[in-house]
């Protein structure tokens, strides 16, 4: 009785999750439940829960923390009399570097978190609380990092950083030990496997590697500080670099290594699967924070003081608000650009069936550039018209948009290399939506590149060109499907002039579809 | 061929969603797919997508915007020589009121958004872009609101607000018209219904009511400003209030009204279903932002200047950082409290099977108090020890924690009133986890209340009591299950002394289980 009872709660939660997915899955959830609950689930234990929401909350926290260091960059006051070039160089050397490094390190911690919860698929109260403790330490990492950057010769920053990493390692080990002592919390693959102990030791070994090296680095820092930074950098990125190199070599030579059973998890291979769900949740968080960064500032700083309005503007609120005009423009511009980049990301991941570690890395790079967008947009409106500073700010914005977009395109290109595993047939090479997806992904990089070169040539009209770009792009996305069809029809008209059918635009869709289906099925 | 093709992409996405839910659903997704795709889905159309991620992104944006106005409150500098009472009263009258009103209005907009996307369950590119435009207008609402609060006698604030609402109304109407022109995007219930036109008109009528009234309010504001504020307040909250009153009356009299077919959506009834998924996503967003609010400030403001460290602290970074000690404490305290409140929320919603509008409202109140937590915690550490200010800051923190917790408890109590629809059997009255859930939900309110009264009596040790509370609560959550069992065993020992079995604690679980199962099944 008790056992059946327990499996009931699990079934209930699974059902609930499926119900979330809308009405379509109702039939599935009601008809096939008994089969979907594995014997190990049936054993059940009171208080186990799906980890879905815990991971969503963790992703939200981590995405905020990853982007937090852009705030000091954005709030650096630009002096009007100073040349932008110099101040940007000053920023580049410290604050932007801190931002990018923080972003990278937090995403490394995030990747470790994903890896851990790909092994542990169910949680209970104790694991949820341990995970919260882990999260708190992750949120503290950016601060230790900015201490390191501000006081590079002081021990404290590196000791705090190593301390955080070590405590996180201990907590993660406790989580692993706890989960392995309650196997019903684990991934099914490990649950049914016979050498659970082997898995446990392998995972613990991988998890403890970084904290142990951090301990050495912190001891080492007492003797020779500079080298311990190098040690840290190696510790954190070595597994990725070495495995990537190994993977590249094996690809180049063509020799496919047989991965042993133990290497299913924690392989650090570029094609190790990465939970697509979590990549999306993390990206959504970053896009949402970045899109609203400027409105946070506007809400806080750009409400004029009633006394000032009375004295300086003769009580005219509109006149007082006109001073802030550029900031509103920057907000709308950055919101629209970030929103559309999210839209492209959304369209791409809709057709991704499996995310890999390498795709996750490219996604991280894209997001890191997205984080810089509000700052760049703010700069474009801060300087007097036709000044050298304005031109440079506009060009920097174009460069940032270009890289944010090109890394999104790169995700797709990488996915295409292994398209049968990672992509839906429709966007594979030759698929029905292939050209349309290419157009979507290429739109922003192309436009940014075009604007960049146009502003180089017509530097006098740079602001006008930039604003025109901002306004045109959303409409371009709206009519993109049409544009692609017209473009394809024109191409066909030029290269296959033997069949100049005027209805080809309409038939286009059906024409391109047939051969690809043959390929796919 | 073309039609089959299209249904394939839909099937693929459904499958993908289920795969996300982990390995357990594999069997379900592979075995029962053909049944789960409805005839209308089979018709299919190129480019339709599940709305899941669009809604997640919208929720993330809205949760950030809802909490944005706490920043001006948090950044108000407290003067040490000034009495806290006065400065708090000053805050209460303006900034806190703006924060609470913003929170309420944004959540009203969010509820409208939920309602809309409970009718439209699939999206395409065009709808995604229209939704982004709608989001941008929502993110602008807090600013118009703070303009209204700062310049209550100026027209501009109210005109901007009404303008935003009107444009949002137009966009939402366009979305509805667009979706009804492509019925495969709609909720299945409407899709199969014969009077789609009736639905369309009903929904449009409800959507356009608020923008139309806003138009009147803005015209009215040109004549008599103060009354147009009242008009606005009525417009926004009237449907909720009137329907709630109607519902309460019908509950009191016991007369159950038959809701006509048209009233399935957009009823404003307190028991109208609210997407549980989205309530969770929105809450996660708010908890995540609030938990990290203080670290954002710390990362930006609390990195000391190297020159200052050299001059004032003789190069000792540790001495310089000790100045910020209270801020770190406040950060850890608020992170832990927010994290644990999230944990309680998570545990509760794990057992909620259907969320209603009234539960959503209570959740909003709880979240609004959670948003004030970092500010309160910051205050507790900002004043000298044993000052009157410190005592009041601690008591305010207790009050905020109390209300945040008590509204969570209220969600459960409301759910219990209709437990067969809204709750999992385990946490219903008499269910196995009923007492444990009660303990979880009651822990924070009780502790906050206890701390409040203790600090009233032992005002000299208020700081110590508060810190002790901060440290004890996480451990209390860890051993709560044990505590509840011991408590139950003790109660049984006292009230049923005829069976003083020493093993009762161990058997407790089985003993309590049996009678409830009889109830449940």
TrEMBL record, chains A, B:
Q: GO MF annotations for this entry?
A: potassium channel activity; proton channel activity
Q: Which UniProt keywords apply?
A: Ion channel, Ion transport, Membrane, Potassium, Potassium channel, Potassium transport, Transmembrane, Transmembrane helix, Transport
Indicate, by first and last residue, each region the UniProt record lists as having compositional bias (Low complexity).
25-39
InterPro entries membership: TMEM175-like
Regarding the membrane, this protein is recorded as:
Multi-pass membrane protein
Coiled-coil segments: none
Where are stretches of biased composition, namely Basic and acidic residues? 9-22
Q: Which reaction does it catalyse?
A: H(+)(in) = H(+)(out); K(+)(in) = K(+)(out)
Query: Positions of the region Disordered?
Result: 1-49
Highest taxon in the source lineage: Eukaryota
GO cellular component assignments: membrane
Transmembrane regions listed in the UniProt entry? 54-76, 96-114, 126-149, 155-180, 210-241, 328-349, 361-381, 393-417, 438-461, 473-495
Question: What subcellular locations does the record give?
Answer: Membrane
Q: Tell me the protein family, please.
A: Belongs to the TMEM175 family.
Name under which the protein is recorded? Endosomal/lysosomal proton channel TMEM175
Give the organism's phylogenetic lineage.
Answer: Eukaryota, Metazoa, Chordata, Craniata, Vertebrata
């Amino acid at each position: 009785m008790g056992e059946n009872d327990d499996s009931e709660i699990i079934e209930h939660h699974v059902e609930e999750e499926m119900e979330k997915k809308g009405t379509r899955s109702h039939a599935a959830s009601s008809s096939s439940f008994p089969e979907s609950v594995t014997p190990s689930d049936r054993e059940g234990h009171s208080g186990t829960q799906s980890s879905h929401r815990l991971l969503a909350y963790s992703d939200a926290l981590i995405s905020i923390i990853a982007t937090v260091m852009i705030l000091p960059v954005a709030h650096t006051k630009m002096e009007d009399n100073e040349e932008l070039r110099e101040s940007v160089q000053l920023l580049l050397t410290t604050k932007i570097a801190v931002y990018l490094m923080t972003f990278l390190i937090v995403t490394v911690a995030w990747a470790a978190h994903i890896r851990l919860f790909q092994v542990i698929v169910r949680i209970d109260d104790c694991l949820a609380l341990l995970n919260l403790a882990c999260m708190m330490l992750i949120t503290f990492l950016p601060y230790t990092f900015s201490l390191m950057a501000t006081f590079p010769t002081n021990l404290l920053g590196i000791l705090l950083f190593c301390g955080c990493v070590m405590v996180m390692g201990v907590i993660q080990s406790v989580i692993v030990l706890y989960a392995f002592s309650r196997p019903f919390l684990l991934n099914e693959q490990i649950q049914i496997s016979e050498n659970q102990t082997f898995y446990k030791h392998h995972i613990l070994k991988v998890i403890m590697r970084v904290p142990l090296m951090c301990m050495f680095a912190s001891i080492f820092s007492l003797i020779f500080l500079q080298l311990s930074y190098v040690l840290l950098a190696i510790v954190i990125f070595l597994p990725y670099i070495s495995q990537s190199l190994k993977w590249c070599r094996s690809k180049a030579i063509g020799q496919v290594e047989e991965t042993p059973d133990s290497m299913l998890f924690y392989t650090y291979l570029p094609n190790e699967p990465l939970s697509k769900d979590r990549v999306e949740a993390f990206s959504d968080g970053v896009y949402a924070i970045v899109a609203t960064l400027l409105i946070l500032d506007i809400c806080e700083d750009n409400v004029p003081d009633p006394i000032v309005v009375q004295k300086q503007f003769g009580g005219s609120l509109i006149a007082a608000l006109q001073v802030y005009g550029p900031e509103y423009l920057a907000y709308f511009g950055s919101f629209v650009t970030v929103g559309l980049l999210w839209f492209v990301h959304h369209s791409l991941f809709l057709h991704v069936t499996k995310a890999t570690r390498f795709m996750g890395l490219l996604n991280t790079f894209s997001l890191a550039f997205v984080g810089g967008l509000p700052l760049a947009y703010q700069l474009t409106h801060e300087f007097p018209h036709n000044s050298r500073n304005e031109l440079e700010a506009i060009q920097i914005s174009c460069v940032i948009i270009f890289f944010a977009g090109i890394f999104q395109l790169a995700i797709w290109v990488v996915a295409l290399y292994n398209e049968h595993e990672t992509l839906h047939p429709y966007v594979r090479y030759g698929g029905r939506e292939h050209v349309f997806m290419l157009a979507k992904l290429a739109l922003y990089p192309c436009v940014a590149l075009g604007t960049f070169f146009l502003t180089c040539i017509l530097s006098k009209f740079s602001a006008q060109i930039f604003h025109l770009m901002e306004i045109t792009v959303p409409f371009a996305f709206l009519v993109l499907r049409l544009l692609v069809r017209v473009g394809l029809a024109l191409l066909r008209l030029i290269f296959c002039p033997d069949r100049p059918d005027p209805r080809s635009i309409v038939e286009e869709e059906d024409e391109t579809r047939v051969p690809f289906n043959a390929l796919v099925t």
